[in-house]
Each structure stands twice: as structure tokens, then as C-alpha cells.
Amino acid sequence: MARLQELYKNEIKQAVAAKFSLDNPMAIPRLEKIVVNMGVGKATQDKTILESAAESLGKIAGQRPVITKAKVSVSGFRLREGNDIGCKVTLRGARMYEFLDRLVAIALPRIRDFRGLNPNSFDGHGNYSLGLAEQVVFPEIDADRIQHTHGMDVTIVTTAKNDDQARELLRLFGVPFRQPGSRAGGAGGQ
Length: 190
Fold this sequence. Notes:
By secondary structure, this protein is an alpha+beta fold. The protein has 4 helices and 5 strands; from the N terminus they run αβαββαββα. A 5-stranded antiparallel sheet has the order 2-3-1-5-4.
């Protein structure tokens, strides 16, 4: 069992239930999934860029990514409907907890001038999104072997009813939110 999964079952679940006075165990917020997305706009001109992005994402997530296609044509970007433009991975279960553990303990501290994540990047339904400017913050990626750096979006989907419950859940998992009153900065413009 993953370290954070065990922590959730033994400590976090009870702490969240006590803080929000939740009697029903099914009402206690939990992580549902983590979606990691890499948009590679340059893939329309060079397919090798998309292949290298998919390979990097596969190493980071521990499972093979799905290639995403354009839904509409945009002539200004030379984009046709159906073109390969990115890749994504949906993580659930033990892989999800292991990815969150690596993100919080290893990747985020490796970001230059990191001052914490924006605590207001919730969507109103308890889901949190953050952006990373480059994939080399993960130790699985060898910085000497990559030709192109790719940014990625990480969305953490929870079963929380509101943002306050989700914020408390992620804080107990160790997600480093920026303290109120500190200056902006950090991960990929967050």
C-alpha cells in the first residue's frame, strides 16, 4: 500500500471528519483521481516532439499516456480536427497516491524560487489544478537526455463538496500551499 494511502486511512480521514463534523463515512472527502496533461502545440509540425513528450509523461506517471487529438480546426494555429496535439494520463488507486507523494515530496521542492502553491486554484467543486513549467523537476527525467522541455497541468480531483474541505484534505496530504500575505511566485506562474 502506498504511504499516503495508508496515511489517509489511519489519520487524515478522521481529522477531516472531525474538523467538518461529518458523521457519515461516505461524506468524508477523498482523492478520486489525478489527471496529468501535456499540451504539445509544436506537434503539428514535428511528430518526434509529441513522442518525446509521451515518453517523458510515461516515465513520470508510471503508465502509458493517451494521445489527445484536436477537437476543432483552428486556421490561425495551422491545426486541423483530429491532429495529435498532446497526451494525458489518468491515475487512480495506488499509482495516484504514489504520484502525489512524489509530486509533494520531490518535484515541488525542486522548482526554482518555489514559495508554495496558490491556495485559490480550486474550481468551486473541490478539484485543484496546478501547472508545472517543465518536466525535469521529476527525478525520473534525465535533464541531459531531453531535447525539449514540456510543461504539464496536474488536476487533483476529490469527492469534496466544497473548496474548503478539499483544501484541508490536500493540506493534510502535505501539499505546500502559499501562506496568506506572502508574495506570488512559484510553479509555472501559479
